[in-house]
Amino acid sequence: MKIAVVAANGKAGKQIVEEAVARGHEVTAVVRGENKTKAQYQLIKDLYDLTTEDLNDFDVVVDAFGIFDPEKMEEHQTSLKHLADILSNTATRLLVVGGAGSLYVDPEHTVELMNTPDFPEAFKPLASNMGKALAALKNRNDVNWTYISPAADFQADGEKTGKYSVAGEELTLNSNGESVISYADYAVAMVDEIENGKHIKERISVVKA
């Protein structure tokens, strides 16, 4: 498949590129500067300058954008909206590296993880903006999107086991009572979804098995 990974130089982006390339896919790293990934191709362009024409030839676009500047948290909303807008009414699928803060902790789906007492205050602006971006995406029927939330403990340097469980909109614990997944195993889940396309217009979550 032809896959574009936006913000490929980030931690999640690099792992997704590596996993996709290892499986024989044709991967283009969409980056603002030097390509630091294993992608076979590169498109050097700012996310906000991307056009429909830039992405027309891809089967899948992965949005791995993330920003941690407190003054720019709203870019989680504006960046996803821009990508959705330029992929509107096209066959190209949009897969989003999501956050865990918007996962529900109750069966009624009234309480999100970010609104529970133990959720770290420092991460609330990030979780809130990512949650609003997801809410806007859910209202769109013109984009073939899939939003993948990691487990609550998203470990950049965690091991690759290749084993994970897929859950839905609720925070899910594994058999050890943990909500954890490594970036490497998340990348496996992402590329599996790219290949299988089982959750179009859905948000799913993944946790280490």
TrEMBL record:
Please report the stretch or stretches of sequence annotated as the NAD(P)-binding domain. Answer: 8-192
Q: Which InterPro entries match?
A: NAD(P)-bd_dom, NAD(P)-bd_dom_sf, Polyketide_Oxido-like
> Which GO terms fall under molecular function for this chain's record?
oxidoreductase activity, acting on the CH-NH group of donors, NAD or NADP as acceptor
List, alphabetically, the PANTHER family matched: FLAVIN REDUCTASE (NADPH)
Q: What is this protein called?
A: NAD(P)-binding domain-containing protein
